[in-house]
Structures are given as structure tokens and as C-alpha cells.
Design a protein that fits this description.
alpha/beta, TIM Barrel, ten-stranded parallel β-sheet, two-stranded antiparallel ribbon, about 45% helix, globular
């Protein structure tokens, strides 16, 4: 059975008011998890609120009992891996073993320039990401002192205390589907692989590539859980669809003056977003389940749209167990 979770973009104006409502709704409505991005601001020069990720997850861990949670994903480009491993272990313990530590290389150049972090070129990003993954997994998995000397990070007889309550700490999720850089890192370090904005056929192809890479690392393909994130706009009629997509007119100024049909076309063509009815969404999720996905994370963009989550819970969650 495929799990269904919700993912939100923090940089789309996330505040405590939104986060409290989302945390409560996702827990009560029966979704499997609530995940969120980790950014300071948008790639474009539109600055909205973006609640700090670690602090928000501490609230979620303490105010829920069931849902899984974590960053989707935390960039090693501005998150120190030592502190992130320490924070993730504490968040996992706080929530009774429900944390997922999603990690990425970083990509939004604007936020790095604004706050003085060096993003670097693609090779630099992934070299740093590989070291960060190595540091985090060593610290979480080793009960003894860890020493490490790299280009970006170093450790000298380091032991994180207290030790994680869950052996090895929270599972590591590696996000992205690039076959040259991301998939090899997922094969080596990940407990969970997360693909973003690709089709079911592409998901199957990348997952098969990942199987081969996992075997080359001496691991078993079944050791890595497969997950998929995509933008979802689910509506029962045209009026509801207009409400679902209205938020984007504030975030992307160019959308403010074009018809909803044109906005939908851009979302589908440039972001591989799902836009359609609840029944169509169930069929779309079924396509990913058939391609090997264990979980889908529905990227929910309108942070005020609790009604939309209720529609998903009432019409989609009830059908997914039948897939």
C-alpha cells in the first residue's frame, strides 16, 4: 500500500499561524506525514515569510502523536552537518522515532547570496553534499569516536551525546533524481530516495537505475524506500480549481493577469504538476504505486487551504488503500 503525505514550501509565506493549523489538520485528517522545504526565501525577488525549519519541526514533534515529519530537504550548503545530525537525533527522540532527515545539495542561489553562504558550482555543491552525508551517517551510526578529514568538514574524536534513541538515528532521505550525482549518493547513504516532479515512467526508470547502483554498493534494493513528491492541485469543479491556484498570482507576478487555464498549463508543462479531480489524483497515485513508489508526498502550495486538505482526505485517502 502506498502512503500519502503532505509537503509544504516554507518560502511561500509559512508562519506560525499556518504551521499550527497544518500540523493539526494533517494529523487529524489521517495523512501519513507532514514534510516541509528548508529555505530562507524564494528564487525570484518576491520575499515572503519562511518559518525556520528546525524550530517548526520541534513544534510538530511535540504536538502530534502519529505523523512522520522532516525537511524535504535540508541543504548542506547552509546547514552544518554536525549540528544537523545533532538536531535530527533530538527531534527523532522528541517525537518517539518519527523523524525523517531529508538532505540535499542546495540550489537557490539568491538565498545564499543574501545571507552570505557560498553555494558554488554544481561540482562544489555535490562534493560538499557527499562529505556532509558521510559526516552525518558516521556521527549517527557510530557509538565510538569519529575522526574525519575532508575538503569541507573535519572531525576529531567526535561523539554525539546523547546517542540517538533509535539505533542509527532517523532514516536518511536523499532528494533528487540525477543519475550522475544524486542517485549514486542515494545508493551509498540513503534509507529513503525521493524523486521530484517526474512521471511514473521516469520514476520507474530512475528506480531501476538506483537498484543497480545500490547493488554495486553491496546493499540490497529493498533497503531503500522509494518516494515521490509532486505539486498537487485537486478540485471538484472549476470554481474550486480557481481557489486552489489563486495563491500563485501573489507569488509569481506574471500569473496575476492571465486566465486560470493558462496558469494550469504552465504548472503542468513546466513543473509536471498534477491538476485535476480527486478521482484523477487517485489514478495518478496508482501510476506511481505501480512504478514502485512506497509513498507520495503531495506538495500543498496554498498554506491557507485547509479545505483542500479535507477534500483530499475525504476523496483520496479513502481510495488509496485499494491500490
Amino acid at each position: 500500500m502506498v502512503s500519502v503525505s503532505i509537503s509544504v514550501e516554507g518560502m511561500f509565506g509559512l508562519t506560525w499561524k499556518h504551521w499550527r493549523r497544518l500540523t493539526s489538520a494533517v494529523e487529524q485528517l489521517g495523512f501519513d506525514g507532514l514534510f516541509r522545504s528548508d529555505h530562507f526565501t524564494l528564487p525570484l525577488p518576491v520575499d515572503l515569510d519562511s518559518l525556520e525549519m528546525i524550530v517548526s519541526l520541534a513544534y510538530l514533534a511535540d504536538h502530534t502523536e502519529r505523523v512522520r515529519y522532516g525537511p524535504l530537504v535540508a541543504p548542506i550548503s547552509f546547514r552544518d552537518p554536525v549540528m544537523l545530525a545533532r538536531q535530527a537525533a533530538a527531534l527523532d527522540d522528541l517525537g518517539g522515532g518519527r523523524m525523517v532527515l531529508g538532505l540535499g545539495a542546495g540550489w537557490v542561489g539568491r538565498e545564499h547570496e543574501m545571507f552570505g553562504y557560498e553555494l558554488g558550482d554544481v561540482s562544489t555543491r555535490f562534493a560538499r553534499f557527499a562529505e556532509g552525508l558521510d559526516v552525518i551517517t558516521r556521527l549517527l551510526n557510530s557509538d565510538g569516536p569519529v575522526s574525519y578529514t575532508g575538503r569541507f568538514f573535519s572531525l576529531r574524536d567526535a561523539v554525539l551525546l546523547p546517542r540517538p534513541g533509535r539505533r542509527g538515528g532517523p532514516p536518511i532521505l536523499v532528494g533528487g533524481g540525477g543519475p550522475k550525482r544524486t542517485l549514486p549518493l542515494a545508493a551509498r547513504y540513503a534509507d529513503i530516495w525521493n524523486a521530484v516532479s517526474i512521471t511514473p515512467a521516469q520514476f520507474r526508470e530512475r528506480s531501476e537505475q538506483l537498484d543497480t547502483l545500490i547493488k554495486s554498493e553491496g546493499r540490497r534494493p529493498e533497503d531503500v524506500r522509494r518516494t515521490m513528491t509532486f505539486i498537487a492541485f485537486c478540485a471538484r469543479d472549476s470554481a474550486e480549481l480557481e481557489r486552489r491556484v489563486a495563491w500563485i498570482r501573489d507569488v509569481v507576478p506574471m500569473f496575476g493577469s492571465i486566465p486560470t487555464e493558462a496558469v494550469v498549463g504552465v504548472l503542468r508543462e513546466t513543473m509536471n504538476a498534477f491538476v485535476g479531480s480527486p478521482d484523477a489524483l487517485v489514478s495518478y497515485i496508482a501510476g506511481f504505486a505501480a512504478a514502485g513508489a512506497d509513498e507520495v508526498m503531495l506538495q500543498w502550495s496554498n498554506l491557507d487551504d485547509i479545505e483542500g486538505l479535507e477534500v483530499l482526505a475525504g476523496h483520496v485517502l479513502s481510495a488509496v488503500p485499494k491500490l
